[in-house]
Amino acid sequence: MNKFIEEKIKADWEIKRKPIVSVPWTDYKNSSPIQDLREFQKALGNLCGIFGNVIEMNENTMDLIVSSDEFIDYVPGGDTDDIIKLLWGYNNSSSTISRQPICKIANYLPDGRVIVKAHSRDTMPWYKDLEATVNP
After folding, report:
1. 14 band by pLDDT with thresholds 50, 70 and 90
2. Which one of 5, 28, 101, 113 has the fewest beta carbons within 10 angstroms of its own beta carbon?
3. What is the rounded CA–CA span in Å between residue 94 and residue 112?
């Protein structure tokens, strides 16, 4: 394969793997963190074939979601456990546990950084991920 084409493919992959939201999540009134997370899940699905079902962020970034008007509109009086109910793939059935989305607190991540991973236990465990900036 041509070296230029190879570098272009690699650069395109890196750009797609690192989305930046259009409205920072610190703008509680105008941001849409739930919709952004769902878009990250779908974007990862388009890149690797499995939507993002593991989402990692630190506590400060999680607080931005819970404080947003969008979250309050979806889940009045809700808490962080309610976030997964709003994501792609949520199902009350335990039969879909391998695809059930989960949010993990990962305090090693800086504020405003979200990692979305696709994990499949159907055959062999493997991960693909994207790293989003939600507070540029």
Report:
1. low
2. 5
3. 31
The region of weakest confidence among 10-14, 15-19, 55-59 is: 10-14
Sign for the CA dihedral angle at 95, 100, 106, 109 comes to positive
The DSSP output letter for 98 is T
Contacts of 60 (CB under 8 A, 6+ apart): 111
Check: CB of residue 103 under 8 Å from CB of residue 83: yes
Strand 113-120 vs strand 54-57: parallel, antiparallel, or unpaired?
Answer: antiparallel
- pLDDT of res. 25: 93
SS (H, E, C) 36-96: HHHHHHHHHHHHHCCCCCEEEECHHHHHHHHHCHHHHHHCCCCCHHHCHHHCCCCCCCHHH
Q: What are the angstrom distances between the C-alpha of 95 and each of 8, 77, 91? A: 41, 29, 9
DSSP state of 6: H
For residue 28, the model assigns a pLDDT of 95
pLDDT value of residue 68: 92
**Residue 27: both structure tokens together:** 């703008």
